[in-house]
Amino acid sequence: SAVQYLRGAHGSKGTGETAMIALGLLKAEVPTSDPALAACLEKIRSRFTSGGYSPERTGIDVYEASAVALALSNLPASERGSMLETVGAYLISKQKPNGSWSYPHHSSGDSSISQYAILGLWECENGGVAVPPSVWDRAAQWYLGAQGSSGGWVYHPGEGGAETISMTAAGVGSLLICPRQLRQYRQFQKGVNPYL
Predict the structure, then answer these.
(1) Averaged over 20-48, what is the pLDDT?
(2) Backbone region of residue 17 per phi and psi (left: phi > 0; alpha: psi in -120 to 50; beta: other values)
(3) Rounded distance, CA 64 to CA 90, Å?
(4) Which pLDDT score is estimated for 196?
(5) Sorting pLDDT into bands at 50, 70 and 90, what band is 190?
(6) Neighbours of 27 (CB within 10 A)
(7) Model-level pTM?
(8) Whose CB among 15, 40, 55, 98 lies 3.0–4.6 Å from 22's, allowing a Cys bridge?
(9) φ and ψ at 34, to 5 degrees?
(10) What would the pLDDT profile of 1-32 be if each residue is shown by its tens digit?
(11) What is the per-residue burial (b if ≥16 Cβ within 10 Å, else e) of 164-179?
(12) What 3-state DSSP class applies to 35?
């Protein structure tokens, strides 16, 4: 029933939502030849140009690119070509100097957007894309600095607001991923392949 719903839901959605539908279909082991999944993947492919990844909507572009990375990472490498590397480079380019990701006009950081960027880059790296360790390190430092005194996180650290369960989950999850990726980098530096 869920697969049938997703097959019928993709037509009028933006690229980010379409990528999430594609991810659901791929996780349900729907073949890429399925007309609905093929249409989703074609919409995703249309955002890639010779100049890189071109988001459909500005402002929420990091959410969109992260969802695209999640979907692409679940395709066989032969079917995604260089798109995963391209969208990974886009996400890296959007990291703020303080280590977070956020809306273009917002410099202090957004816990929700940062979480999506980290998830997208995690899947990129799991798919063979090299993410500089400095990206993980700066993201972890930002999350550590943004943690509230009671241990949780808010959407926009430093701007007030109540800590929420969802943003605390984002903080905890991100702080599990970043050190894991840094640990793998250190193991590679020592000549140990952590995937074996």
Answers:
(1) 97
(2) alpha
(3) 11
(4) 47
(5) low
(6) 12
(7) 0.91
(8) 40
(9) -60, 130
(10) 999 999 998 888 999 999 999 999 999 999 99
(11) eeebbebbbebbebbe
(12) helix
- Are 136 and 175 a contacting pair, CB within 8 Å? no
User: pLDDT above 70 covers what percent of the chain?
Assistant: 95
**Residues whose CB is less than 8 angstroms from the CB of residue 143 and which lie 6 or more positions away in sequence, other chains included:** 99, 111, 114, 153, 171, 174, 175, 178
Lowest-confidence region among 46-50, 91-95, 112-116, 180-184: 180-184
Distances (CA, A) of 117 to 42, 50, 79, 187: 22, 23, 23, 24
Both tokens of 101, joined, read: 């990701």
Buried residues in 2-22 as b, exposed as e (16+ CB within 10 A): ebeebbeebeeeebbbbbbbb
Name the token pair of 47. 């955002």
Q: Residue with structure tokens 């919409």?
A: 43
